[in-house]
Amino acid sequence: MQSKEVSASKDKEKNRQDLKGTLVSVSILGAILIISWVGAYILFISR
Amino acid sequence: MHLHKYEKIWLLFGIGSLVVFLLVLGYGAFWQGTHPQSHGITIDPNNIESNEAFKPENLGLTQVEEDKYILNIAASAFYYDLGKDEDGNAVRHIRVPKGSTVLFQVASKDVVHGFNVAGTNVNMMVEPGYISSLETVMKNPGTYTIVCNEYCGIGHHMMYATLEVYE
Question: Which residues span the membrane (chain A) (predicted)?
Answer without folding.
Answer: 21-44
